[in-house]
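Team,

Forwarding the record for the chain on the shared tracking sheet. I've put the sequence and predicted structure together so nobody has to dig through attachments.
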Amino acid sequence: MSIVLIKALQLLCCLSLLVVLHEGGHFGFSKLFHVKVEKFYMFFNPYFHLFSTRDKWFTRLFPYFSKNETEYGIGWVPLGGYVKIAGMIDESMDTEQMKQPAKPDEFRSQKVWKRFFIMFGGVLMNLLTAWFIYSAVMFTWGRDTLPMTSIEKGFQFNEHAQQLGFRNGDIPVAADGHIISEWVAGNVYRTLSNARTVTVLRNGQEVDIQLPEKLNMLSIIQENPPFLSMYAPAVIDSVVPSGAMDRAGAQKGDRLLALEGSAIETWTDFDSLMVRRADVLSMPDCSHADSLRMRRLNVVFASANGSRRDTVSLELDENYMLGIVKQSPVSQYKVEHLSYNLLTCIPAGLKMGWKTLSGYVNDMKYVASADGAKSVGSFITIGNIFPAAWDWYQFWMLTALISIILAVMNILPIPGLDGGHIAILLYEAVTGHQPSDRFMEWAERVGLFILCALMLLAFSNDIRNFILPLFGL
């Protein structure tokens, strides 16, 4: 099975589950308050659908279900789903119904607090789903953690970080007095970007570093060499058969010492040198002769115990790769495994869900920036984060993350989304005045326009990042 198909299948399973549960939240509260639900669809169905309980063949086979007031179906556009609630202006733009006198079982006839829970039900289900998944994952697999204090060799910092006061070998252990307990790259970057004072362990002593201002997380994540990276000696984990280093006689456990006369101690040093070479190749005035010259590389490497030292001139492949796999820096330290029982997994899942939610909400401030807008992606981006081979642990962890993302996106006060309806309900609760149907119609149109614009931006980013590179553009 191809990698693309595996990723697509995982994405489809993830979205199908989350869409049904999200819309089930709206459906459940509607039924609880005896509000009529006309349609419940997984995926959108413009012009036609893949399945409906109103299909003739289905009603003939199952006449009992044809009497149900709700039509259940599956659309053909896997971009979400919806429930059509009677007496409500939504993306269906069914204004004819709103011209009729209000009925007791319609949405518009309910009290504000009931309508609030009906609209909040989808977001609530997304949050509860993430909590349940995280708890189940903790119970089934437990969790591996690498305490910051266990990273005895510390971190390597780039020039920007050193200008701020960090030094190679430092171990960040606190930010503004809050302990940084474990190494999770995204969380550490986020914590550092929000801090004004970072406490590091330096030669066994705690040292406070005063940052001049809050850092931009997107900017420091994109820095190359990295703002900080775990100290990782340039030890080869494995050699790619028939690759350049394999032809040179390199073996597992060998250590790189120099490239083109520049000394190498860590993989960060190695990456920095390779990035410089890539920069030369990307320059407009780089000739064919220059590219051929860059494919030749002088390398010094030695065995783990130093008994063998080789200096070779390599002929790299067309991708300018040495043909080696780096040894993971995490493998040098003791990773702690935490196990959970049926009772402890519940608070552990809640804690992980809260951390993920607060972290994602914190990162939303970058969306309005130029770099943030470029990072917005559609389903191609989402599908690409799934692993190339089916892994249940990764699948459920990513499904929980996407469930939280859907909750946050849906609660945004944009007309057409749950958050837009909730904002209008809060206005009604405060003022005591219900907006007119005409206002609701125009708000829905504006919301749909905003959503279409965001989707267009997301698809254009995916085309630039994934599609055009396939054609060398």
